[in-house]
Amino acid sequence: MKYFSLLLLLVIFYQAESQSTKKLHNKAILVDTHNDVLTSSVLDDSLDISHRLSKGHSDIDRWKEGGLDVQFFSIWTDKTPRNKEGFFKDANQEIDSLEMITLRNHDRMVLATTYKEVKKGIRQKKLVALIGVEGGHMIENDMNKFDSLYKRGMRYMTLTWNNSTPWATSAMDETLHADSLTHKGLTPFGKQVVQRMNELGILVDLSHTGEQTFYDAIATSTKPVLLSHSSVWNICPVFRNVKDDQIKTVAKNGGVICINFYSGFLDSSFAKKMAQLEGTEGKRIKDSIGKNIDAAKLNQVWRKYFSEQLQPFKPTISILVDHIDYIVKLVGDDYVGIGSDFDGVSSLPVGMDDVTKYPLITEELKRRGYSDKSVKKILGGNVMRVMKANFR
Ligand SMILES: [Zn+2]
Asked: How many C-beta atoms lie closer than 10 Å to residue 171's C-beta?
């Protein structure tokens, strides 16, 4: 009987704990600085995020369920343009699509361009949408096009995606194609772009940029910077994760690093297995199964094999939170946030199936003894501070 009472007490205690964690998650302002669903919906008409979808990671209903308040929508295009008119046209097409979604859902969603509008949208319990342009190639080396994207609502720009621009080099090029670079870091035009971003109140996003570009941009910027979707190099050493010195430099600048949820950026065994499958091991297997089947069939079989092989290497939520924890232990709790990359990645930690699962992070942080105040900063408070310091 004694044991039974003790057990009952424990259950009651556990339930009260989980109730208060839920309350904390719902009360906190949750900001996610990177989501790629716009690109998916521009390419696939059947993805209308106004309705609850059974595929993909995001839609308005599921965002609400996950307690999300503010979403930066990534405006993205590849290193070769989708439209024959070029990258700038691609960017505008994605912004058109976001405007249409916002118009159709104006009762529960708002497109914000100022800090005041962000705050107002949160108060009204609407999903606040912001525009983040992922890659300087979309301004096509033209300040008029840059200004035009600003007028349409661009509030962060990632200086480079995986591809360098003529004025800024990317992490991919600085690390993997260093020999082919004609310059490294920001050119004088690149510095002008950063200055113009400061002037207009556009966050300087340094995810995807090479280290030289990163340091040049921080030296040029007079405002706190953003890394919209980057994880920690010391836990998972892949080319576009951030090293300790970079983390310390962001802290000194007063900026924020938002952790990317992609398995390949979180867990080094996952990243290693993937590199093997993409390298010689994969080639050997493809050669052997490809002997008697056509290319389309091979592709199908290979993709299935690829994801099956990676399945056991998927990281846990705990590893995701290790990345947050690492930054907090290195520089304090003011410089880290959430930049999921939902709908832009092929693998996520076990249980982090879609945008309804953000509360798992709050639970893990509380389990590790984080105070409510710290949790609120990490979920969105830090990004809110950086937005306030930048936006006009
Ligand atoms: Zn990205």
From this structure: 26
Kindly give the distance from the C-alpha atom of residue 244 to the centroid of ligand 1, in angstroms, as a whole number.
20
Q: How far is the CA of 61 from the centre of ligand 1 (A)?
A: 24
Give the containing element (helix H, strand E) for 92: helix 87-104
Residues 6+ apart with CB under 8 A from 382: 256, 333, 334, 335, 336, 337
CA distance 86 to 310: 36
Distance from the CA of 208 to the center of ligand 1, in angstroms? Answer: 7
User: What's the confidence (pLDDT) of residue 175?
Assistant: 95
- Provide the 3-class DSSP secondary structure of residue 108: coil
Contacts of 24 (CB under 8 A, 6+ apart): 362, 366, 372, 375, 376
Selection from 257, 389, 368, 282 nearest residue 317 by Cα: 368
Minimum mean pLDDT range among 12-16, 115-119, 347-351 = 12-16
147/283 Cα distance (integer angstroms) = 46
Contact 325, 368 (CB under 8 A): yes
Q: Are strands 70-75 and 127-134 parallel, antiparallel or unpaired?
A: parallel
**Are the beta carbons of 29 and 337 closer than 8 angstroms?**
no
Cα gap 226→244, rounded to integer Å: 16
Using 50, 70 and 90 to split pLDDT, how confident is the model at 301?
confident
CA of 207 to the centre of ligand 1 (A): 7
Please, are residues 226 and 156 in contact by the beta-carbon 8 Å criterion? yes
Q: What is the pTM of this model?
A: 0.94
Ligand 1 center to residue 385 CA distance, Å?
23
